[in-house]
Amino acid sequence: MNCWRQQIQIKKKLRQVAANNNSTEVSLYDSIQTAVGYIRQKGYNGTPDAALIFGSGLGEIAYEMGLDREIPYEDIPGFVSTTLEFHRGRMLFGQISGVEIVAMDGRFHYYEGYSMQDITFPVRVMKALGAKKLLLSNISGGLNPGFVAGDIVLISDHINMMGGNPLIGRNDERLGARFPDMIEPYSKRLGRLAEQYAMRSELILHSGVYLALTGPCFETRAEYRMLRSLGADLVGMSSVPEVIVAVHAGLEVLGLSLVSDECFPDCLQPVEIELLLKRASVGSKIIAGLFQSVLKDPDF
Question: Domain containing 85: what range?
């Protein structure tokens, strides 16, 4: 009898400890509000209509911004720090083509050792600031034999092969539905605006499916063959977690990718990071023009 009573007491204590732990746990929603509060405290009182994320070497559009202010990532509560020297690591606030925007000059990656929640946290914050649309760019390897290095591709869909999902865990209905529909992760409406500009400018804009892997190593010949057989036109190491969270948050998404190298198994060449970044620098001007045209379109 005494043994039974002791077990009851132990169970009560364990429940009390669990309750105490839960009461001190900071929710994702609260962390987002803390980050927004800090940004407001630093003097940004605007309401951005759009959020932008620049990929590796693709920050050219930052020079087209009428900047109000910038805040280093490491200063914002809840943000981690980028470990890549070619990502500036700052949040920008200002206007492009008369549209109020907030932008990430550089992103976080899963291969840097951060969690899916860490790398997508800025998307949550930009949404909480008021953003309704997300325009993002990245560099990728071209799997489609119709693509060549330097091409710009409108991302029409994606395949998540990163082995994780930023929505795993307890869902907060204030941030989005438990089971978001991914039937159209990339807005066809915004995609058409980009295509219309490309046609007017006589710019070749391909369309394709982006497949995300964790990295940081590049793929083997056999892996490239497999990825192509799965229906992928591009392969990269980013963007998909951010798009999943954007859809969960109710943001319209436009994604553009620069083909930085050709991943054709039978004529594969060793990857040169410096060459990839050089191509990204050239392609960045084209992507900046596409983003600007979409932002200033009356239908945006």
Answer: 21-296
